[in-house]
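Reading group handout, session on sequence-to-structure problems. Before we discuss, look at one worked example. The prompt was deliberately terse, the way you'd type it at a terminal:

> structure DUF2703 domain-containing protein

The input record follows.
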Amino acid sequence: MNTLKIKWQRLLINGKTCPRCKLTEKELEKAISILKQYLNPLGIEIIIEKNELSVEEFKKNSLQSNQIWVNDVPLEDWINGKVGQSICCDVCGPSECRTIKVGKKVYETIPAELVVKAGLLAALQLIK
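And the output record:
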């Protein structure tokens, strides 16, 4: 069986994260469910890995938070997106957090459809 690995990391402080990461997690769960529905019958197993960023890691590079990789390739590379940043919330302090720009649209929360698109593109490489 082939494996499609989705890795996501976000800042966690005492089990709490910022609103955009919390919403991204919900979107990620939706995307995983959709991908499993379509890819499991093709013999592709979906593996999700969630990693925590420490406050120290976040302070060094806040754009590491809310980052997703599909088969070790950044999500934005699969979907022709660009990484940006914007002010987030009090959990993140004065640091700007990661955004993704696709076309003219900027996403603070990464929607399920972008993860699904990246997952399907990665799956195509597995079944070639």
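Points for discussion. First: The chain has one domain: 2-127. Second: The mean pLDDT is 91.
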